[in-house]
Amino acid sequence: MRKVIDCRDFPSESGCTLTISGEEEEVVRAASEHAVSVHGHTASAELRDQIRASLKNEMPQHA
Q: Which Pfam family name is an example for this entry (predicted)?
């Protein structure tokens, strides 16, 4: 099942609205890079663990 993480679920001074979805490892990697480059977090195993714990299952979209 695809995973999703949405910046709107976390407090942010920038009001970021980015949503990332995909396979779990893709989302963790992309969200970690985004958290570091945009939100000023430090790249670490702890950050990746926090992101992984915050992932949600993507709800299927039906046409």
A: DUF1059
